[in-house]
User: Which sequence fits this backbone?
């Protein structure tokens, strides 16, 4: 499905609910995928995202060296692929091939978009000062894409040890909170 | 309902799905509540939580000065109170009274637990080095409480401007991810 550019000012609405995401990196022509849940918005616009990528993960060195990545947001239809990516390491496996995911070129970074995800956020690392102590990278989202036909995609939310909460209904309340 | 102590090693499973939380602080005998969604786990055990508290919020100075708070997790039954806390400021309002929430003494910090929330995490600020630049506090969870009868409480997940996703069903997948 063709994705459309999505306003950077609205990116927080995709990540603030806390979905499991698939982080893609690319280094020396080799792309990888990491399943990740430890992320938070840090600024609305330009959007900043803090995320913890363990230095035990294969993606850590690629992220640190290239300072580029893509945050891809999967929905429940990709649950088994999300778990597959989390259960394996890019040191041993080409996860795109192993799990039947399609890499697409990004517009601003070397890391690929995952076609099957309904939203893709191209990011650059903007601060590494918390990496040594906490493995916390601060990312700036530089370009966002969404599939306009899947605005109500049901995201996955990790509860630990194989338990995933699937996004339920959305309710509207008289909130003035951005 | 009487809460029970909850193992610190399992705290990440409460926050990793990305719920809206109510942050309580207390300063000079005055307690306050702040609605918050910008948080992430940073370490499993002892549990570390990164959270962004804007310096425009009344809670900011209390958190910075006292270095203590409680992360309270509300479910959908408290949705209107959550929005009320988000729409108002502790500078002008006693939110416990205004929204009919019950403060209970915590065991290790001065900030109160919110009785109506199904989980409460007593926290101490352990790192303020990212506060000046990002308003990011690193919290260490020192004591956790849950209502054992409400393990499947349906949390709220903020999508922006009054839209809240309500936690849906939990599925089990063959994941080895902690």
Assistant:
């Amino acid at each position: 499905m063709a994705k459309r550019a999505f306003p950077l000012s609205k990116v927080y609405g995709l990540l603030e609910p806390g979905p499991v995401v698939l982080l893609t990196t690319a280094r020396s022509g080799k792309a990888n995928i990491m399943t990740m849940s430890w992320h938070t918005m840090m600024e609305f616009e330009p959007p900043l995202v803090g995320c913890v990528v363990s230095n035990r993960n294969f993606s850590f060195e690629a992220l640190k060296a290239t300072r580029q990545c893509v945050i891809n947001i999967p929905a429940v239809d990709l649950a088994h692929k999300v778990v597959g990516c989390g259960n394996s390491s890019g040191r041993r496996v080409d996860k795109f091939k192993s799990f039947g995911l399609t890499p697409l070129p990004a517009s601003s970074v070397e890391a690929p978009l995952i076609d099957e995800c309904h939203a893709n956020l191209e990011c650059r690392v903007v601060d590494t000062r918390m990496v040594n102590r906490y493995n916390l990278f601060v990312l700036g989202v530089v370009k966002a894409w969404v599939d306009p036909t899947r605005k109500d995609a049901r995201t996955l939310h990790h509860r630990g040890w194989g338990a995933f909460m699937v996004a339920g209904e959305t309710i509207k309340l008289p909130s003035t909170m951005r």
Notes: Chain B has a mean pLDDT of 97.
